[in-house]
Amino acid sequence: LQMLERQVVGGEQAQNKDLKEKHKRRKKYADERRMQLVAALQQSNEDSSDWVLLNVYDSIQEEVRAKSKLLEKMQKKAAETEIKDLQSEFELEKIDYLSTIRRLERDLMLFQQLLDQVQSLVRRDCNYSNLEKIKRESIWDEETGCWKIPEPVIQKTRLP
Q1: Which of 59, 86, 131, 143 is the most exposed place for a label (fewest CB within 10 A)?
Q2: Is 43 helix (H, G, I), strand (E, B) or coil?
Q3: Region 103-126 average pLDDT
Q4: Distance CA 83, CA 95 (A)
Q5: Residue ranges of the alpha helices (H) in 120-159?
Q6: CA distance 160 to 142
Q7: Could you tell me if 66 and 57 are in contact, meaning their C-beta atoms sit under 8 angstroms apart?
Q8: What is the CA radius of gyration of the chain?
Q9: Cα–Cα distance between 32 and 92 in angstroms, integer?
Q10: Three-class DSSP category at 151
């Protein structure tokens, strides 16, 4: 019975010493790897935990695949971060442009109202009494970056 039990408990190869030795070596190797992983995880921080886990591989192809996946993941994160940065930068520029446009529109309205009020006070015999004519005669100077407007002239009419 004991002989049968020893054969049954270990299976057909219960007496095979080479197989037992191979199992012991595998178990020892697995325990060493587990201890390395535990030690590495204890030393690593949150960001590098993925990196540390990828250092233990069964084959080079597995290592290459894992590192390629990690590289793709990091590149994707970097691209997403870059896109978000550019979008926020463009949004800030857009807000700045819109506020500049609004301010310029308010200034234009102010100047237009001032001109409308002042135009009635300008003498009729002055060339500034007709704003449309002044606009037509004004010339933009590219060098100085400002308008050249005609000098005010008062036209006196003499009766014979």
Answers
A1: 143
A2: helix
A3: 87
A4: 18
A5: 131-137
A6: 46
A7: yes
A8: 44
A9: 55
A10: coil
Dihedral (C-alpha) 52, 58, 63, 65: value to the nearest 10 degrees? -120
> What does the alpha-carbon distance between residue 24 and residue 73 come to, in Å, rounded to a whole number?
38
- At 23-76, the pLDDT tens digits run 889 999 989 988 888 887 777 655 454 554 545 667 788 888 888 999 999 999
Buried b (16+ CB within 10 A) or exposed e, 78-99: eeeeeeeeeeeeeeeeeeeeee
As a whole number of angstroms, the distance between CA 51 and CA 47 comes to 8
- Indicate the pTM of the whole model: 0.45
In the structure encoding, which two tokens stand for residue 52, read together? 């540390």
Contact 138, 113 (CB under 8 A): no
Residue with the two structure tokens 């949004």: 91
Nearest CA-CA partner of 57 in 33, 79, 38: 33
Distances in Å between the Cα of 28 and the Cα atoms of 25, 31, 39, 45, 155 are: 5, 5, 16, 27, 112
**26 is written with which tokens?**
């595998």
